[in-house]
Amino acid sequence: MTGPADPADPASPADRTASRSRGSYAKGVARRQEILDRAIEVFAQRGGSRTSLRAIAQEVGVTHAALTHYFGSLDELLVAVYREAARRGEGADAAPDAARADLPQTPAESMRSAAARNRAIPGMVELYSTLVVSALDGDHPAAHAFVTDRFAALRVELARQVTDLQAAGRIRRDVDPQLAAALVIAASDGLQSQWLLDAAVDHEAALALLDRLLAPPI
After folding, report:
1. From-to residues of CATH 1.10.357.10 in the chain
2. Which among 119, 141, 165, 182 has most CB atoms closer than 10 A?
3. What is the pLDDT of residues 109-153, one digit of tens each?
């Protein structure tokens, strides 16, 4: 039986329930972020080597049940870690050089910037490569969706850059923008894999060469 309302509390029972729900949701979001922050630290040290969610939970310092509750699967955790680390890397980018501020980046320059951000965060290049391998495996839906969507979005963005740069006379007009975008992504990811195996591979110089090959003849 419900007792009389407290005259000092003007909120209705529904309002109080909604308030508690909002408080629980906020706490859940904060807890998920706390776990994600710790997971980023762990993967920065260990790279993307695949292991069990239970083992990672132990490294992160939470229960297996808590990790499963917030991330569902190992692949979902890996994707969340990569997305968050990439977001932080983008936010930490320095302001563009004033001398080049009026010049749009070429697709290869965009990929060079992204690769440099990844290399600045220990373990992130390995983690990305792990996600790509998992996506190709066909048995990891979260990784497959992430990598497929990433490639699709990159192709659209880089093709737009190619079209704009063709109009500005900085890329050959006989180049198909979609194919050029796919080529730049393939070159960047392939060079990144080579760099993982041999740090002497100059990722940035190779992409700069690609820029010169796409440029119109002088």
Report:
1. 16-90
2. 165
3. 999 888 888 777 768 888 888 899 999 988 899 999 999 999 999
Write the pLDDT tens digit of every residue in 42-66. 887 776 666 778 888 888 888 999 8
What class, spelled out in words, does domain 100-214 have in CATH? mainly alpha
Of 175, 54, 49, nearest in space to 108 by CA: 175
Chain segment 173-191, per-residue pLDDT in tens: 999 999 999 999 999 999 9
**How far apart are alpha carbons 203 and 1 in whole angstroms?**
71
Q: Classify 15 as helix, strand or coil.
A: helix
Q: What is the DSSP letter of 5?
A: P
C-beta separation of 185 from 154 below 8 A: yes
The Cα–Cα gap between 54 and 138 comes to: 22
SS3 4: coil
**Three-class DSSP labels, 65-103:** HHHHHHHCCHHHHHHHHHHHHHHHHHHCCCCCCCCCCCC
- Give the Cα separation of 74 and 77 in Å (integer): 5
Domain 16-90: CATH class, spelled out: mainly alpha
Distances (CA, A) of 49 to 79, 118, 122: 14, 16, 13
Amino acid at 100: R
H helix intervals, 12-73: 13-46, 53-60, 64-71
Residue (of 186, 185, 166) closest to 176 by Cα position: 166
